[in-house]
């Protein structure tokens, strides 16, 4: 009986681990959409807040392309992929955006519901960051 309970417990732990991994895939898929800038914080400057409709956006597509907008106009477009452990070791909740045209520094990001926070410095801990909200 003890062995059976042990096997059931191990099976349950494996199931929980597998489900946790699939949640990470969900996070990666949730980045697809149109995001608009709301807060920009950069050292040594104070944070600035941006109104809805400002036109500074990121548009992540399922194809692996991202468009960058300023004032509603596309300024650049490139390939991206979401990876773990980019240029440094970060806590589990951080993922990285690796762009096709960049070979050294990845953008660390967090995604919580419809809020995307991106930091474009190595390790993303103490540097500037931009917060976006999903608008589509």
**Rg from alpha-carbon coordinates:** 18 Å
Indicate the low-confidence ranges by residue numbers. 1-28
Question: How many H/I helical runs?
Answer: 1
Mean pLDDT: 73
How many β strands by DSSP? 9
Walk me through what this model shows.
The chain has one helix at 2-30; strands spanning 33-42, 45-49, 57-60, 65-70, 73-83, 95-99, 107-112, 115-119, 129-134. The chain is of the alpha+beta class and 136 residues long. The protein has an eight-stranded antiparallel beta barrel.
Strand and helix layout:
Blueprint: H1 2-30, E1 33-42, E2 45-49, E3 57-60, E4 65-70, E5 73-83, E6 95-99, E7 107-112, E8 115-119, E9 129-134
Antiparallel strand pairs: 1-2, 1-3, 1-9, 3-4, 4-5, 5-6, 6-7, 7-8, 8-9
Structure at a glance:
By secondary structure, the chain is α+β, with helices and mostly antiparallel strands. The protein has one helix and nine strands, in the order H-E-E-E-E-E-E-E-E-E.
Q: What attributes characterize this protein structure?
A:
single chain; about 140 residues; alpha+beta; eight-stranded antiparallel beta barrel; 9 strands; disordered N terminus
């Amino acid at each position: 009986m003890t062995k059976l309970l042990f096997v059931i417990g191990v099976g349950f732990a494996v199931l929980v681990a597998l489900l946790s991994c699939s949640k990470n895939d969900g996070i990666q898929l949730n980045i697809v959409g149109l995001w608009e800038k709301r807060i920009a914080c950069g050292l040594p400057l104070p944070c600035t807040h941006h109104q809805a409709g400002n036109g500074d956006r990121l548009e992540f597509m399922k194809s692996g392309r991202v468009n960058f907008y300023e004032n509603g106009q596309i300024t650049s477009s490139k390939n991206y992929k979401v990876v773990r452990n980019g240029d440094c070791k970060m806590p589990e909740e951080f993922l990285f955006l690796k762009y096709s045209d960049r070979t050294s520094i990845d953008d660390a990001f967090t995604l919580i519901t419809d809020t995307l926070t991106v930091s474009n410095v190595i390790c993303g801990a103490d540097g500037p960051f931009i917060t976006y909200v999903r608008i589509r």
